[in-house]
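Subject: two folds for Thursday's group meeting

Dear M.,

Sorry for the delay on this. The cluster queue was jammed most of the week, so I only got both jobs back this morning. I'm pasting them in the order they finished. Each block is the input sequence followed by the predicted structure tokens. Could you check whether the formatting survives your parser before we put anything on slides? The first protein is the one we discussed after the seminar.
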Amino acid sequence: MHSIPGDGIERGVSGPEQMALLVEDDPSLARLTAVWLNALGYRVETCDDGRVAAGLASRMTTPIDLLLTDVMLPGMRGPVLAGLVRIMHPAMAVLYTSGYSPELVGEVFGPYADTALLLRKPFTFDQLSFSVRQAVAHRPTARRTRIADPVPENVPDPA
């Protein structure tokens, strides 16, 4: 698990059409984080429950570029949610947040603790901005388009 410090990164980390799914069960923190994500250039869908967020993600027609989720959520833990949403949105960046102890969070992630990007609560705008940049830089390179049907073997290569 990588805890990420913040250090005054400039605003506007995403492109103009980036979508973030924010899953946070603290209403005041969710509102503030959504405002900050908007300032970073994201359109934001917000949810306070892991199961509800998974359902919302399955109905979204716009690709999710960033999943920002609390580790400990009602309905479903953040890492389980991220795994489910990644099936539907394979190129999505994931950033976890938590105010719990590093030991407890490490237990939740299990063997994947070394690969998870974690932003410790409470955090500042600059810490969020830096962490989002890190998550986006480390997101999978999966294509954002539908996976095509396999090409039959008898079709010649167009090259």
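Second protein, same layout:
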Amino acid sequence: MDEIRGGDKSDFKIDSQTRIGHIHLKVSDLERSVRFYTEVLGFELTTRMGRQAAFLSAGGYHHHIGLNTWESAGGSPPPERSTGLYHFAILLPDRQALARVLQRLLDNNWPLDGAADHGVSEALYLKDPDGNGIELYIDRPQEQWPHDSQGQVSMYTRPLALESLLAELQSDKVPH
């Protein structure tokens, strides 16, 4: 698997409507993880497979997140400086939704690893109880994305003003 043989770079492109559908995580303690994803992040439990797997969603979808202990019950996170998942990202619909999640994290004393303005998006970074990295983010409208002098998207990482984000809750009229 060290060598990857591809054809000419122009001979294949994945369909532009392709989306990442869901993530399935190996966890050490299923109940702890279900509590985190439902009680802290607000996902809904859609189904269980006994005591070894659970599936969660937003808005009634079959599942956005799968959790299992099939190979990981009682396990520990991978060591630093190893390969594997860096983080998975959860796209929220708007700034108010991101602010509500931030407030929920603060209310639960859940630590943030970072908060960034990337020009194209605004993001919060944290870890779940098993050390899996999570990015909670919103995209800016494409017409607001920064571009360089050649017209290429020019992403950056700048601090995200959390006070400004939380101020979105002052105008939050959407029931939750």
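Two things I noticed about the second structure. The mean pLDDT is 92. Helices lie at 30-40, 95-107, 162-167.

Cheers,
T.
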